[in-house]
Design brief:
Length: 635
C-alpha cells in the first residue's frame, strides 16, 4: 500500500502552471510586441480608462473598483511609461488621470497586468485583458480623432466542464471510463465551488484548491485540481482527480508498554473502515490485551456526516469496556483493580477554513460506569472494599489542523465537567483519597512538526535542478499537552499519567499520576532515504513488486523510511490539595534519548527508543535507562 501524500503546494503549482502556460500568450496583450518599435513603443493620449467586460457575470469586480486602483508608473512630464527597477514611480488612480496625459504601449501593458494580478489576488484565474481601441497587429490607434477615452476589455475565465476522476487502490479494478464521474463522487461534483455556467462559472483556482484540501481531510483520500483548455478562448475544463487508498485496514501491534504488576507486553489488534457504507463514515474497532491475561480493553467507534451535502457537521458514537489495575493508572504503590464501561456521543462542526487551516468546534457527553475492588483505601480497616460509580461528563472543545508539504500543526482543547451521585467516602474506594464528587477539567494537546530545509535555504529547496538541496529529510517535532483540574481532586480514571513511550521516555509506563500534569517533548528526526538522489526506475521485489528505494523524482518520497531520532521529554505532575495526603508530592520528570524507526510502505513499522532519566521521580532514579519497543503490521 503506497501512502497518499497531500502536497497542496504541488496542487497549486500544477493548477496555476496549467492555467498560465495556456493563457500566457493572451493575458495582458494591450499592445503586442510588433507595435513596440522603440524601447517604450508608441504613445497614446488618454483622458480616461473605461472598463468593460466581454461577458457579464454577477461576481465580477465592479468597474469603478478597478478604476480606483493605484498603479505605479514612471513619468516624464505628462508622459507615462512602465517602471523599471531603477525608476522612481508615480502612484496614479486610473479614475483620476492628469489632463493631457499620454501613455506608452509599455505603460498600458503594465496597467493591464496590474488588473490581471488584482483578479488573481481575489482568486480568479484565466483573466485576459485586451485593448480593443489599439490594433493588435500594427499598434495603430483605432479611436476617432477626437476621442481620448481608452477601453480595457476584460475576459474572465469560464468553466465549461467539471469532471471527477477516481484514482488509487479503492477503484483500481475500474477502467478509465468507469472511473470518470463515478456515482460515489456525485456529491463532490455537486459541492464544487466552480460549475459550468451560473454563479459558480468563473475560474477560481484558489477556491478550488481550498475545496480540494477540504475533501482531502478524510483519511486515505487526496484530491488534486487539474486544469485543461476548454473548447473556446478563455474557457477551462476542470478535473478533480480523487485518489483513495483501500478503504479498510486490519492491524496488529506489539509494544512493551505494560506495567510490572500485570505484564510488560501489550498486544493490540484493530480494524478500520473509512467508507463503511460509502458516505465518508468511519468504523473503528480496537482490542488491547496483556499477553491475553489480566488486561483487556475493547473500544469501538463510528463517525459520519449527517449528510454528504453538509460534511462539515459530523457525529460520532464511542463505546469502551476495559479491565485495569492500580498500576495502569499510575498508582504503583496502591492495590486496587476493576473494570469500566463508557458510552460517548459527540457532534463536530467545521467553523473555519483558511486554505490548509481547519478549525472545528465540538460538544459531547460521556456516561462512564466503573467498578473497583480496593484492598487499601476505604473505611473497613484494610478489608476488601468494592464500589460502583457512574459519572456523567459533558464537554465542549475546539480542535484544528494545518497540514502542508513542509509542516504539520495539530491542536485540541476541551473543558469537561464530571458529575456523580456518589459521595466522597464512596468515591475514595476508587483509589484517590478525598476525591471531589464534581470536577472541572481542562485538557489540551498541541503539536507542531516542520522540516528544516525550506527554512534554511528556501530558494535552493524550491530549485528542482538541485535535488541534493530539495529534500525533506531533517524534521523537528514539538509537542505540548496536559490537563488542569482547577483544584479538584480526581478519581484515578480521570487523572493524567506521566512516564513511558507516549509521555516521558526512559521512565516506567505510568510512573506517576496526578490531577494536574504538563507534558512536553522536543525531537529531531533524520529521514535517511529521503537524502538519496532521485531514481525514476523502481526496484522489483518479490511479493511486493515495484518498490521505490530512492525518491522517484525531486520532492518525491521513497516507499520506505529509516528514521533516526534524538529527543528530550519532560513532565510536571502536581496533585490538587496535597494537605489531604502528605506523601503525594509534586513530581518533575525529564529524560533525553534517541531512537530508530523503520517503515515499509504503510504495512510495517518497527520502532525502538531508549531514554535516560535525568530527574528522579517515584521509583525511577536519575541515570536509569529504559528502552521502549513497538512493532506494527498493517494490511
Amino acid at each position: 500500500m503506497r501512502p497518499l501524500e497531500n502536497p497542496r503546494a504541488r496542487r497549486r503549482a500544477r493548477a496555476r502552471s496549467l492555467a498560465l502556460v495556456w493563457f500566457a500568450a493572451l493575458v495582458s496583450v494591450g499592445a503586442p510586441a510588433a507595435a513596440l518599435r522603440t524601447a517604450q513603443g508608441p504613445v497614446f493620449p488618454v483622458s480616461e480608462f473605461v472598463i468593460e467586460y466581454a461577458l457579464d457575470h454577477p461576481r465580477h469586480i465592479p468597474p469603478q473598483e478597478l478604476l480606483d486602483l493605484e498603479v505605479g508608473l514612471s513619468s516624464l512630464g505628462l508622459s507615462y511609461t512602465a517602471p523599471r527597477p531603477v525608476d522612481r514611480t508615480v502612484r496614479m488612480r486610473l479614475s483620476s488621470l492628469p489632463e493631457g496625459a499620454s501613455f506608452s504601449a509599455t505603460a498600458i501593458q503594465h496597467i493591464t497586468q496590474f488588473v490581471v494580478s488584482t483578479f488573481n489576488r481575489r482568486g480568479f484565474n484565466g483573466i485576459i485583458v485586451t485593448v480593443p481601441d489599439i490594433d493588435e497587429e500594427s499598434g495603430t490607434d483605432l479611436r476617432p480623432r477626437a476621442q481620448t477615452a481608452l477601453r480595457l476589455r476584460i475576459w474572465t475565465g469560464r468553466i465549461t466542464r467539471l469532471t471527477t476522476v477516481a484514482d488509487g487502490e479503492r477503484f483500481e479494478e475500474l477502467d478509465e471510463a468507469q472511473r470518470t464521474n463515478l456515482t460515489a463522487h456525485e456529491w463532490i461534483r455537486e459541492r464544487a465551488p466552480v460549475q459550468p455556467g451560473g454563479m459558480r462559472g468563473l475560474l477560481d483556482v484558489e477556491t478550488l484548491e481550498d475545496y480540494a484540501a477540504e475533501i482531502s481531510r478524510h483519511p486515505g483520500r487526496r484530491v488534486d485540481v487539474e486544469l485543461e483548455p476548454g473548447p473556446h478562448t478563455g474557457t477551462t475544463d476542470v478535473n478533480l482527480r480523487i485518489a483513495e487508498n483501500k478503504p479498510w485496514v486490519v492491524y496488529a501491534q506489539y509494544s512493551n508498554t505494560g506495567t510490572p504488576s500485570t505484564t510488560k507486553n501489550r498486544e493490540r489488534f484493530g480494524f478500520v473502515h473509512n467508507q463503511t457504507t460509502g458516505r465518508d463514515d468511519i468504523l473503528r474497532l480496537d482490542y488491547t490485551t496483556g499477553d491475553f491475561g489480566d488486561v483487556h480493553a475493547v473500544v469501538g467507534s463510528y463517525s459520519a456526516p449527517f449528510s454528504l451535502r453538509l460534511p462539515d457537521l459530523r457525529f460520532s458514537v464511542t463505546g469502551l469496556y476495559s479491565e485495569f489495575d492500580s498500576s495502569e493508572v499510575g498508582f504503583v504503590d496502591s492495590d486496587f483493580h476493576g473494570d469500566q464501561a463508557l458510552g460517548e456521543v459527540e457532534l463536530t462542526y467545521n467553523v473555519l477554513q483558511r486554505h490548509e487551516l481547519f478549525v472545528d468546534v465540538y460538544a459531547g457527553a460521556r456516561l462512564h460506569a466503573m467498578s473497583v475492588e480496593n484492598d487499601q483505601f476505604g473505611t473497613s480497616g484494610g478489608l476488601d472494599d468494592e464500589e460502583d460509580a457512574t459519572f456523567l461528563v459533558p464537554k465542549v472543545g475546539v480542535a484544528g489542523e494545518r497540514r502542508t508539504r513542509t509542516s504539520r500543526l495539530l491542536f485540541d482543547a476541551n473543558v469537561a465537567m464530571g458529575l456523580t451521585r456518589e459521595d466522597e467516602k464512596e468515591l475514595e474506594i476508587l483509589g484517590t483519597p478525598d476525591p471531589d464528587e464534581r470536577f472541572t477539567l481542562l485538557r489540551w494537546n498541541g503539536s507542531y512538526a516542520f522540516y528544516l530545509e525550506p527554512l534554511i535555504d528556501r530558494q535552493a529547496w524550491e530549485d528542482p535542478s538541485t535535488p541534493e538541496s530539495s529534500t525533506l529529510a531533517h524534521e523537528i517535532a514539538l509537542s505540548f499537552r496536559g490537563q488542569w483540574a482547577f483544584g479538584n481532586r480526581l478519581v484515578p480514571q480521570y487523572q493524567e499519567i506521566a512516564g513511558g513511550l507516549y509521555t516521558v521516555r526512559g521512565y516506567k509506563q505510568a510512573q506517576v499520576a496526578r490531577d494536574n500534569v504538563l507534558l512536553g517533548s522536543a525531537e529531531y528526526r533524520l529521514h535517511l532515504p529521503r537524502l538519496f538522489l532521485p531514481d525514476p526506475e523502481p526496484a522489483r521485489l518479490p511479493l511486493i513488486g515495484d518498490f521505490r528505494v530512492h525518491p522517484e523524482g525531486v520532492f518525491g518520497r521513497p516507499d520506505w523510511d529509516l528514521v533516526f531520532r534524538l529527543f528530550s521529554d519532560g513532565a510536571r505532575a502536581m496533585a490538587s490539595d496535597r494537605s489531604s495526603l502528605d506523601d503525594e508530592e509534586h513530581e518533575t520528570l525529564i529524560s533525553v534519548g534517541g531512537g530508530i524507526e523503520v517503515q515499509i510502505l504503510r504495512n510495517l513499522n518497527l520502532r525502538a527508543d531508549a531514554g535516560r532519566v535525568m530527574t528522579s521521580a517515584g521509583s525511577a532514579d536519575s541515570g536509569d535507562v529504559r528502552g521502549h519497543l513497538m512493532a506494527t503490521l498493517l494490511y
